[in-house]
Fold these 4 entries.
Entry 1:
Amino acid sequence: MDFYLVEQDGPVLRLPVNPAEISFQREKLFETVNIMSLGEVDFPSNGEKVQETTFSSFFPAEYDASYCQFSSIPDPEEAMAQLEAWTKSQKPIHFIVGGTKINKLVMASAHTLTIKGGEPGDIYFELTLRSWREIKVRTVAELQRTASGIIANRPDLKPVPKTYTVKLGDSLFAIAKMQLGDGSRWKELFALNSSIIGKKPELIYAGTKLVMPA
């Protein structure tokens, strides 16, 4: 099981040490009304609050095969700088857990840093991610064009296959472009299948079955 944070057209951070657990918090929306003689009363509302995902781990200063997922571990200070950059950023990133169905857009909303005595160079952290929901806002001009009989381009309703078998001459970019409609999503494809592909995304072999991102 591998944990990835992936910025589209940007950095990819693979956690060197897997979290012991991940916490998912999901809450229903309520509208609270203060009624005389009764006090506060909750009325269920449509929808739910934004889901929060929280986990903790650490960036070791040195590789240790007993708990590190791979040998080329990132520099702890550089990795924490990337988490801080994502926390400050207004763009969502992908949170992917290889071998599971977890692959979603999130915003890094908070992170804490802890340095422990007796462990020089190691940096412990806790990260909170909030699920990202994209809202499309239509302009007045778009609404007027639709109302006047001009039909917008029909969205591509072709379903994305759950798996794809690599063919001779394929590349991750070409597969992402053909199957997902966006070649830049090859990083997600690689992150989901790194245990199959190996460390070199440019080397894929015909007949290999890849898991496709949603």
Entry 2:
Amino acid sequence: MKNNSARFERWFALILTMIDGRGHTAKELAEVLGTTLRNLYYVLGRLRGMGFNVVHEGTLYHIDIRSPFLRRIAEAIDFTEDEVVFLHSRLLEDASTSPMAGSIKRKLERFYNLTSYADVHFQQRLYENTSLLEQAMSSRRVVILHDYSSPHSHSMNDRVVEPFLFLGDKVDVRAYELKSRQNKTFKIARIGRVEIVDTPWFNEDKHREMFTDMFMFSGEQKLHIKLRLSLLAHHLMIEEYPHSGKLMTREDDNHWIFEGDVVNYVGISRFILGLFDEIEILENAELRHFLRAKIERMKLRRRASDM
């Protein structure tokens, strides 16, 4: 029984290797199977007899994922053509930032033999929505973002907004949402359709841009801080956060002044606590209070762990 189980695991590993979308040499497959080339050819023959379409091109082998055996397995979870295109379009939105989304997208394309239709359709929709948002901004008009897909609520609904700023090379749009009375960032790729409404902005005084600080925290508020850094602290800050260089001015041979804005005190407090005797806070009483509270919490946690 143990030998049969081990053989099954090796055969399964071989099948997974041969459907990964790449071709493999006989030597590579024999290593996966843990056997000789002669026995590998025997196994490949058995796989063909079981309904696997083993393709041999030059020196490389792979299994066509449209093989009858795999098709029978997939029938229980098969998607309609419309469902495939929908899933593919959603994966396209995240493929550039999520390795997993990119991997699933490629598998979907291989299994369903997708043409470039979905890509072309998606790019056309993206172009049209971006153009309409641009028009709305220039004319200061309210728009409806139809069928906006929210990754947080896992829902799809319409959003009535006042768009006023593109972000990230027109990947996102910053807009004031009328219902929530909040400024939000919307991914253009998640918008089904943009409709320009014949209503001018009436909340322009509430529009707020999104600010991202050097610690990659984003928010609407800007908290101004001013620090005196030793040479060591200066070098380490430049090394960890290259964008901080433009916020530095030399005070003397041994000190630098850092002056800039942050969204919150989380990032800068971590840096200060790591170099507490190399940094002096020149401005911002709230930052001092934040650090004191953080130190007290650290002390309490230390005492609790020692008990």
Entry 3:
Amino acid sequence: MGNTKNNISKSKKTHISSLLESDILKNIPKSPGVYIFYNEEKKILYIGKSIHLKSRVNSYFNDKNKLNFAKKKMVSEIKNIETIITNNETESLILESTLIKKHLPKYNILMKDDKNYLYIKITKEIIPKIFTTRIKNYDGEYFGPYTSSNNVKNTLKVLKKIFGYRACNLIFGKEDKNLIIQSTNGVKIPCMDYYIKRCAGPCLLNKENIQAYKESIEKIKKILNGETKEIIKILEEEMYKKASELKFEEASELKKDKESLVSLETLQTVRDFVKGDYDVINFIKKYERFFVGCIEIRDNKITEVKNYEIENYLEESDEEILEKFLLLKEYSSSGLNILNFLLPITLENHNILEESLAKIITIKQVKIETPKVGPKFEMLKFAYKNVYEFAYKKYLASQSTKNFTAKTQKNFLTLLGYTPINKDIIFECNDISHLSGTHTVASRSIIKNGKTDSSLYKKFTIKTLENNKIDDFSALKEIIQRRLKEIENKKNLPDLIIIDGGKGQLSAVLTTIEAYKKNCDEPTKILLDKLQLISLAKKEEEIFLPGKSEAILLDKESEELRLIQKIRDEAHRFAITFNREKRIQSMQKNILESLPGFGAITRKKLLKKYGSVENLKNIPKEELKEILNKTQIETLEDHLLI
């Protein structure tokens, strides 16, 4: 390789004129190689490569009117040019890749990758823990990756519910072959999970508990390895049983549990699609940005799924961006001889690119394919689906801090055929939350003049349902009845009520309103007739209106859709938070109920005076003696509650 470098002399003329008149452009070699543009501070602006350096570099200056705005801006900053001669185009590609990775120039494409996808990790501890992680350190058993974090989290909830596994930070060890607890890390023994049957309680150091826990872990491993048929069959049988008993909400919960487990297998094996080691690459240009997705397949299994946002300052072509992406990407190549690439478009000189990539990755051979049909094409479609979702989430994130206005709300009302009722435009949304039918609660979120107003949020405990009964429709009926009573008394009619759900939920609400109106006076009936409602079905974001059979589908990027998504998500968040609070209160009560010698009166006194079981550990024993006897205090000590 050769190296030529020239400094541009200062001149009163424009720097472009100076470049054209100086020897620097005239002396650029016609050989293949790499060129480097510097600015006045001697910082690298851009690194490029060409089979004909002179022609390529001069193209930036000879007809600048053909350049796009970004390239014109870059050229205006160039104060120095360096060229490095190579023997052939392959060497140019490799050198360009190396230099860009090292210097990360301002105008070269920059790749911002997403966080790694989730893995489920089972630790190597004597009593293993299970949790999700985005980092693979090979210090335990890993299952994944999984593209849907929601599916993973739901699956772990299902597994915890069925088998139970610890989520605590206890440190176990061995002493004379016996299991011991080396450190509690502040954990109570046993914790709440044991009392609600979400853990076998190996912390009790009982042989039966320890054996039961280890057996559960082995069953979980089998399920995570794809052996889900047996457990899915059990869930299906229970689901059909609940449905036959007309317990449709419980059946629906079991269906969700089953779907979470089924989803685990989706990414684990691709034996039916491809044989060998592949990097499947696809891209999307959307929201004025460029996104690239990569699915890494090793030993017929997906080992990594990554998406990148590309900063394409110079508005380079799709082909140029993909080529540079391949050259700049980091590769997992341990033990590989041949790595295959599946691309959505054909790249010029792909033979040279294959040779260059093989040298960069340090493997025997690289093969690039552009399938149009068949299993490999299906993998490309899968990569596209993933990068599309990534692009959409990035777009939503960029818009999340954007403030809406009352105008957005008015526009949405007009689109629906509704009219504003109040001077300050108020939308409200209700949501129901429970855990397998326990502690059913509801929430109401508010958007006023385009902004969420948490001072107007409300939370409700559902009173008409028996505990453990799953019936979202009855809960919704109760919350609507309470809202109608409020409107009757306070005359505080909102501009729009948003129901979280589909046609069924909207129909139930309309039936509730009509039934309520039968017992109202005429002025209240007239007021309630002005109610404006919609329901929003989450899966496809379908909007349903009273009396209309067809759903409205808004553009995913529209302000109006993002507005109602925001209020819906706020109601959901607020309801879940309240449900969690109720469960914690109940769990603390249940712990006291499980302790010998603690009757209802004693429990009531303790919780009334100190608020929670958690607070007991901060109370001096002398003070506790005012309520508890010596035996009761010793019981609390034995269970590490004080």
Entry 4:
Amino acid sequence: MTPERGRRGDAAMSHAVAAIREGDTIRSRLAPVGARESVGGLLARNAARYAAHAVYAERRNDAFRAVTWERFAKDVTSFGAFLDAAGVTPGARVAVVSPNRGEMLVAEFATMALGAIYVPIFAGYPADQVQGLLGEVDPAVVIVAGRDQLAGVRATAATSVVVTFDAIEPAAVERLTDATGVRHVTYGHALAARAADPARVAAFLAAAQRVDPDMPALLNFTSGTSGVLKGVVLTHDNILSQQRALSAIWSVTPEDRFLSYLPWHHSFGGIFEKYTALYNGATIHVDDSRGKDFEALKRNWAAVRPTIYFSVPHVYQQLVTHVQARPQDESTIFHDGLRFVFTAAAPLPGTVSAFFETKRVPVLEGWGLTETSPCCTLTDLNEVRSVPGMVGYPIPGVTIRIAPDGEILVRGANVMRGYYENPEATAQALPGDGWFHTGDLGEFVGAGLKLVARKDRVFKMLNAEKVVPTEIENRLVAMNSFIRHVIVAGQGRRFLSALIFPDYLRITEQFGTDLATADRVVKASLRETLVAFNAAHRVKYERIQAFAVISRELSLEAQELTPSMKVRVRNVLVNSGEYLEAVYEPSEVSDCRHLRKVMRLAPDDRRCFAGRDRTIDQCHSCGAFVFDDDPASDVRIQPGA
């Protein structure tokens, strides 16, 4: 199906009508399309069918240079022969530490074609963390991008060769090889030394097709919002079961163009987006913006004109903000060929989704985990979504159940084999009842799924009332586009508070260098949002009674975000301890002179909420903001603590 002008919902077929609810489970009436196969089978099929078509393209000298399926199969064969000679056998691990680049696709397919396990590791992890993960998986071959990643590599007992995609100065290589005795080879040399002719390519692809689809193919480390990384073992069939399911409801063709920045070490980009393109013969254009350099993203967007785009909500917010500030760029961003966009990892603000809809570009959302390869549910393009937290309907072949305690359970061909050499964690997630226990809480809306929260985020206040903070957080973010992140706290406390992290890119786009206006408008906007939230919230103990606006971004470096940009709440709370103290301590004890002065409390008044009719303001010394219980009270907000 080719892209059409106007409403581009034809990019997918309705599957909401195919969803059925049976007691405490939901599933799709549709069946997956296609036969089970290995990743090597996918390679052989597409190399024959799309020989002259581009698999991927990368920027080289200010232009995208494409690599065809024919060339790709040849490179995979050559690199596979190198890995084989290096001692990579079925079940062995090949680890890659690199930002997204085309050579990673060659390494991945070559590894899987040999029946070995591909292990992508985030290049932004600290050196000691990379070393720890390498020690855990003990790879036969380690592949890194260049000098920066090489500096963090330490060979393990099984490692015989280290490969670098880029040429490296001898001194950097010698530090590794002299200390460990491992051999160093550049990627280019590995290909040239075993250049494949057509006969060798055919023989290699034939052998790759015979790899059992139930063999482990990929070891993906979870993002770890808890901070604990676990290696998820996925088979060839786990990975490709997603595509057989999508073939029943989506129409992706070789004419489609993907602009890909989502990191390939993570399941959203590395499995769902990447294999959606590869399985269907579409072309992946590697976006060197990494999702962080918006100017580079805009340049690449204009050059590629993607027809299907996968991203996290913040990038969509950036696109909308940019078009609102620069209407002349609208025809470039929302061009006629853009069929639909897909979002995951966090809720997409309703204002952003609505903006895309006004431009007749449908927005798809989904839910899943690394352990489910990753997709379990998708929203339907033909259905108007009005339920906050709704994440769609089960994809074909997947059944979802809600346990008595509210936990979402999943069954299907997409469920992982287990956690690598971690039987305790595996037994917890796969306790032998036939279901994968996700750790997420949810509820059914008809035959669809509404996501509520992570089980470990639900907490009790001092009064023993149970709070689901994500529901409050999602609502606040949806209410105000100046808020990028908000964390609701209050476990064991008398009242709830919030840590607000503003969207400074959004503020800068709108106000530029006019800081005075920005300060005034953002203050008023946050004030209105919090007052409106409290006024509309009937459950009194769930109102936000104190908060702090934190004038910094959450960061990967501080371990506050996962590589897929999910928030590690526990780490944020630890790193923001001083703000929480400012929020809570002055309002629960009597020795905060600054807060007393601002709130004009009587000297003997020991509780900040004693005077219900008093004006509440920020303590400029400790950084606390406090609300009166009366939502109509005069609450003045000053961003920055």
